[in-house]
Amino acid sequence: MRTRWIQSKVDFKLRSSEEHAVHMDEVAPNKAPRVLNDIEPFVSSVSGKVVGSRSALRRHNHRHNVVSFEDWGNQGDINRKEHEKVFLAGKDGRVEDIRKAIHDNGGDY
């Protein structure tokens, strides 16, 4: 009997098609297309009006020139990591610079 083999794009191992299907369900269970539920109505902190659907949310965001948090996806994590890399890289040196500046200007630190 012939078997179909598939190489995984995740770990590059060669598996039979049945094993591959099980493996992909374990690795990436929610990668299939889906229909999103409508949003729960909420009161906008920008306008004070009730927004009750995704289309109303899109119009609201466009009208008030704002962006929903969900539109960022995982970019927030990426931006946070870049921020930490830039601003926390020389943290020890900055702390010493601040202490020195406070001390030089008559502060008691």
List keywords for this structure.
109 residues, 45% helix, single chain, 9% strand, 4 strands
Describe what this molecule looks like in 3D.
- This protein is mainly alpha-helical and 109 residues long.
- The protein has three domains: 30 residues; 35 residues, no CATH class; 35 residues, no CATH class.
- The chain has four helices and four strands, in the order E-E-H-E-E-H-H-H.
- The protein has a two-stranded antiparallel sheet. The chain has a two-stranded antiparallel sheet with strand order 3-4.
- It is flat, with a radius of gyration of 26 Å.
- The model has no long low-confidence stretch (mean pLDDT 77).
Report the portion of residues in β strands: 5-15%
- Largest sheet: number of strands, sense, barrel closure: 2 strands, antiparallel
State the shape.
flat
Given the structure, what is the number of helices?
4
Mean pLDDT: 77
